[in-house]
Specification:
The chain has 304 residues and is an alpha/beta fold. It has ten helices and 13 strands. InterPro entries: AAA+_ATPase (IPR003593), ABC_transporter-like_ATP-bd (IPR003439), ABC_transporter-like_CS (IPR017871), ABC_transporter_ATP-binding (IPR050763), P-loop_NTPase (IPR027417).
């Protein structure tokens, strides 16, 4: 994490309703300069509306936002050169190459087009500089969208589900781009449905549902706070259930068609006992993750 001190964003009890729907219902948090801050939640949780209020794209019904020391609403044109926004659905100028797209965005902000080559390199599109936007793959278009949001070298970057619909390789490549952005001292605020991604990239996360923040901390602290058991998976038939139940630290053990699953809150003595019986081959250990925290807070029901 690269922090230069101070808060880049201060959100104080913001609220936004549409009729009876409370899209944002008393949300408050701060984001430090240089921090990578994630806003997580199921569909309809209020993530995008919260971002739009912070960005100055939407007016809150009540509450306040300070962005880089200024109020983003009414639309604050003085902030525009200092923020970069990548929306869920990005639109590009028709029939322009990747380089031309970036040159156009740079010129709109009065920035020298000399930065274009640097942006193309950061997002890994140097070899696609002369390729038309509509000929790029989905992952390449996402990276170009982020490059356009960075073309004027903003201090704060907002990314709304930047890795949505990307294949695993493109998503991992984009992680490197996001890390490179933060290493340049930028503050990043983003939303995602990929909990593994948030756990790896974010300094802190806020988990939202029904317009409210349910929990906020570092991913590691949230996982520790869940106090979930460890699951140890063995190949079925490697030991009997009775043997495993006799080990110190075993809370429960179950069996399915392919494996044995040991539940424990004291994995060390259980693993030691398994090692003594020569049963470490093929063993898998699963501890709690940010996804477990998310599901514990928001539930498991399907959200359209």
């Amino acid at each position: 994490m690269t922090r230069s001190g101070g808060d880049a964003i201060v959100v104080s009890d913001i609220r936004k309703s549409y009729g009876d729907l409370k899209a944002v219902d008393g949300v408050s948090f701060t984001v430090a300069e240089g921090e990578f801050f994630g806003i997580l939640g199921p569909n309809g949780a209020g993530k995008t509306t919260t971002l739009e209020i912070i960005e100055g794209l939407r007016e809150a019904d009540s509450g306040g936002v300070t962005l880089l020391g200024e109020n983003p609403w009414p639309r604050n044109v003085g902030l525009l050169p200092r923020i970069g926004v990548q929306l869920q659905g990005s639109a590009f100028f028709e029939k322009l190459t990747a380089r031309e797209q970036l040159e156009t965005f740079s010129s709109l902000y009065g920035v020298s087009t000399k930065i274009v080559d640097e942006m193309l390199e950061i997002v890994g599109l140097t070899d696609k500089a002369n390729t038309r936007e509509d000929k790029l793959s989905g992952g390449q278009r996402q990276r170009l969208s982020i490059a356009c949001a960075l073309a004027h070298d903003p201090d704060v970057v907002f990314l709304d589900e930047p890795t949505a619909a990307l294949d695993p390789q493109a998503r991992r490549n984009l992680w490197d781009v996001l890390r490179a952005i933060q290493e340049r001292g930028k503050t990043i605020v983003y939303t995602t449905h990929y909990l593994d991604e948030a756990e790896i990239l974010c300094d802190r996360v806020a988990i939202m549902d029904h317009g409210r923040i349910l929990a906020m901390d570092t991913p590691a602290a949230l996982v520790r706070g869940l106090d979930a058991p460890t699951r140890i998976m063995l190949e079925r038939g490697s030991m009997s259930l009775e043997q495993i139940r006799g080990f110190i630290g075993v809370d429960d053990v179950s069996e399915d068609d392919s494996s044995l699953t040991v539940i424990t809150r004291k994995p060390a003595p259980v693993l030691s006992a398994l090692a003594e019986h020569g049963n470490l081959d093929g063993l898998q250990v699963r501890t709690a993750t940010l996804e477990d925290v998310f599901l514990d807070l928001t539930g498991r029901e399907y959200r359209a």
